[in-house]
Amino acid sequence: MTYVFNTLKSICSAGFLVVFLATTGGAVQPDEILDDPVLEERAREISKDLRCLVCRNESIDDSNAELARDLRILVRERLVAGDTDDGVVDFVVERYGEYVLLRPRTSGTNMVLYGAGPVMLVLALLLGFGYTRRRSKARSATERSLSDEEQARLNEILKE
Length: 160
Description:
Elements: H1 2-24, H2 37-48, H3 66-80, H4 85-96, H5 110-137, H6 148-159
């Protein structure tokens, strides 16, 4: 029984290792790499911040999707053409939308998204504070005193 368990454990470990190594390597193909190491380094830095539109939360540098490959090639073409890093990013954002950025910009309509969470938290705290304050001031039904008639009836019942 121990032999079977150890064999299964080894097979699972080997399978996990194969899958892990296959997915953690960079997806940049050798034919994409630029001859100029400075431009290649700039391309890698830009690619780390661009989202693969197929894989969603993976950078184009890590993705094996065809669209990611096309974006990596586009970034390198723009750099070879002489664009600045910001110019390349602006070009890609203009073409594919701001969703292509892994870290969205903090300007324009994104400020509403960044501010909505804290505003909702403060609003919830204020509403909760107001609710508990009103509840503590309200007299509960058990706290009100008995009328004279009710007290007399209670005394009669207790005497019996």
